[in-house]
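dumping this here so i dont lose it
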């Protein structure tokens, strides 16, 4: 760790630049707005839209667990981080080319999109695991909140500018151009991958033993049983991620109940990214001073309000003018992800960071396996009861955070 601190300022800047470009690319594929909006141009099926969170979560979780053992053995973690980052830009450039030049039927476009979307999340899952492991190695715990704060406030500000000047032209109601939108995603993801070449990382000492994959898998799952702190966090995560299958439905709910159109999407993504940047700045500095637990609790409580807020606004005559409040709350979603990772990096031994993060990713996938069924439930009944039930589950998750330890101030953690 002393060797890593020698280059901490440089690596801090590289991490920040990487996340800034990722944020710029991400605004053009915002999961809660752009993705369901694009699917809705090809099919009105709630079930197909329900596959979006399932694909995203399974795509992230499975590769993380499969490569966690290999990553733990790699002397330089940045190799996997950089390769997976470049891999993440390819699906979006292919999709942009297809939408720009191919004249395929909607059913074929949906099938190709889901295949490329899956490929994106497979590479992003590898990248996420490598990011958390590399950050745990190169950046001190007391500076990880600041890293999140600086990278998000700058990234979200630039992303808002890009959305205002570029996306507003490409999301016109009479001429929506998703080819340019996804092309911009691929471009910025490529720039994010490029800056990762500048990490300065000393090789890690090889692990004392190389357990077979099945043994590595079994010992990883046993962490939930034998590590009390991680077990309690696992229960919180299982409940909290019940909210994620709802994300792609908020946009369509607004379209069907309040008459939102594609031109309104720009406002929604701008608001969401503005809150994400400001929230990351505030929450990141709080996390550095008071620990990650209190921030995790606050963010989960905020997320619990989203479904109820959407239902409440839909009942108002002027609801279309204030529906952006739903996306203001959704802006805290990236904050929750980084805070959860940072919390795990503190409760887990450094040599087991890949294993803990991989298990966390698998736990996150469990609630999302039912997302197509949730879409079917919405299709057969209505949005409102599903939203209200989801909110109740998230509130329970927030209450259970009071049972979590704060490792920053606990004598049982280094």
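and the seq i came up w/
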């Amino acid at each position: 760790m002393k060797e890593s601190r020698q280059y901490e300022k440089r690596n801090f800047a590289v991490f920040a630049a990487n996340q800034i470009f990722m944020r710029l690319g991400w605004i053009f594929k915002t999961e809660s707005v752009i993705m369901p909006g694009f699917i809705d141009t090809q099919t009105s099926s709630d079930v197909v839209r329900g596959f979006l969170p399932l694909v995203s979560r399974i795509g992230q979780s499975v590769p993380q667990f499969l490569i966690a053992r290999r990553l733990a053995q790699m002397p330089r973690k940045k190799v996997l981080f950089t390769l997976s980052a470049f891999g993440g830009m390819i699906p979006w450039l292919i999709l942009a080319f297809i939408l720009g030049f191919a004249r395929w039927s909607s059913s074929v476009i949906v099938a190709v999109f889901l295949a490329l979307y899956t490929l994106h999340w497979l590479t992003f899952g590898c990248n996420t695991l490598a990011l958390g492991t590399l950050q745990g190695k190169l950046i001190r715990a007391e500076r990880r909140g600041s890293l999140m704060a600086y990278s998000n406030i700058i990234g979200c500000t630039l992303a808002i500018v890009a959305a205002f000047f570029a996306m507003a032209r490409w999301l016109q109601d009479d001429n929506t151009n998703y080819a340019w939108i996804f092309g911009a995603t691929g471009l910025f993801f490529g720039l994010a991958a490029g800056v990762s070449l500048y990490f300065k990382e000393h090789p890690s000492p090889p692990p004392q033993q190389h357990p077979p994959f099945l043994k590595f898998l079994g010992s990883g799952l046993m962490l939930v049983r034998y590590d009390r702190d991680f077990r309690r966090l696992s229960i919180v995560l299982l409940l909290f991620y019940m909210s994620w299958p709802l994300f792609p439905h908020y946009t369509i709910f607004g379209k069907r109940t309040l008459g939102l159109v594609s031109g309104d999407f720009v406002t929604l993504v701008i608001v969401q990214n503005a809150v994400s940047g400001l929230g990351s700045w505030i929450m990141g500095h709080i996390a550095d001073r008071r620990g990650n637990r209190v921030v995790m609790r606050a963010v989960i409580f905020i997320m619990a309000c989203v479904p109820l807020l959407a239902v409440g606004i839909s009942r108002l005559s002027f609801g279309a003018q204030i529906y952006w409040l739903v996306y203001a709350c959704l802006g805290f979603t990236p904050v929750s992800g980084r805070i959860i990772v940072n919390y795990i990096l503190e409760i887990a031994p450094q040599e087991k960071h890949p294993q803990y993060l991989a298990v966390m990713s698998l736990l996150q996938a469990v609630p999302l396996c039912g997302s197509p069924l949730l879409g079917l439930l919405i299709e057969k009944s209505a949005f409102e009861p599903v939203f209200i039930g989801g909110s109740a589950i998230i509130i329970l998750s927030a209450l259970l955070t009071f049972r979590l330890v704060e490792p920053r101030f606990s004598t049982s953690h280094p």
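The chain is about 80% helix and 0% strand.
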